[in-house]
Design a protein that fits this description.
single chain; mainly alpha; 291 residues
């Protein structure tokens, strides 16, 4: 089992020449719908695949290098996987949400039908929450199978993925714990700061509009101030997205090291047993009876 996932991942990222530029470029790519996510997943899990094969832990030199010729197909397959699993998670919630909306629009003081709709929505939320927890091993391991085998179907072999998870559940849980801690730090420190700056700039913008309406503000000063506030907001939100990209990089690196322990070089077809499945357990001889 790989120990110290965060330390290892952070060292690999820091030891990569021009790593800040790479993280910033990957963040910038996410502005482009679909294509940006394809490149992000294709690059990061191509890096994770290299680690799983025992190659260098530093990030690949070029984001669009496409050394193995599967940058875009790999990224597309992983994106499809995440969309499908995401739809499965929210599916139990959707009928109850639609029912609640229907009741809300037709609500009257004497209409008690909204109560069953609320109860149905609560049940749907609980089911979706349970599915989201159960999906964690699959969302972690399936992208690695796609990266190694190079196809989409290997990411939906749930029985195989479950066996991989059971072989080293603590390793996956450590990676999940690492992501939760990093995410909580971002959520509790960075997100409030971003929201505060956004609200302050929105307030200043509103004050400028009020000044223009009252005739006490200059249109040139207002236009210049609006541009400054817009730039500040863009920079702040871009830095926030950069931290999210960095978190994705940590996860991909850690999953690469977790998969490495499964002896990827000995993997055969996607339907064949993995090396740990072929290891025969030691059978103890039965105790001999004494006369």
């Amino acid at each position: 089992m790989q120990q110290g996932y965060f330390d290892t991942a952070w060292k690999d990222i820091k030891n990569t020449p021009g790593w800040i530029k790479k993280i910033l470029l990957l963040t910038l790519l996410q502005i482009v719908p679909i294509f940006g996510q394809i490149v992000l997943f294709g690059y990061l899990y191509g890096w994770a695949r290299n680690i799983a094969w025992g190659l260098s832990g530093t990030m690949p030199e070029k984001i669009f290098g496409n050394a193995d010729g599967k940058l875009y197909s790999r990224g597309f397959f992983i994106l499809v996987l995440q969309v499908v699993i995401g739809l499965i998670i929210i599916l139990p919630f959707m009928p109850s949400y639609v029912a609640l909306l229907a009741q809300a629009f037709s609500y009257s003081p004497h209409d008690a039908a909204i109560i069953p709709a609320l109860m149905l929505m609560m049940v749907g939320c609980l089911v979706s929450l349970a599915l989201s927890v159960l999906s964690i091993p699959f969302l972690m391991i399936a992208p690695m199978r796609i990266s190694v085998y190079g196809n989409l179907s290997s990411g939906f072999q749930f029985k195989k993925i479950w066996k991989m998870f059971r072989h080293d559940p603590m390793g996956i849980l450590k990676i999940v714990g690492m992501m939760l801690i990093v995410g909580m730090v971002i959520a509790t420190i960075v997100v409030p700061l971003v929201m505060l700056i956004t609200y302050i700039t929105a307030f200043i913008f509103g004050a400028g509009v009020a000044g223009m309406v009252a005739g006490s503000g200059s249109i040139v000063a207002f236009a210049f101030g609006s541009i400054i506030l817009f730039v500040v907001n863009c920079v702040v939100w871009f830095l926030y997205c950069t931290l999210i990209t960095w978190m994705y990089a940590l996860q991909a690196n850690a999953l690469g090291y977790w998969t490495r322990q499964l002896n990827v070089a000995a993997w055969r077809g996607q339907d064949d047993p993995l090396p740990f499945e072929l290891q025969q357990p030691t059978v103890m001889p039965p105790p001999q009876q004494q006369d």
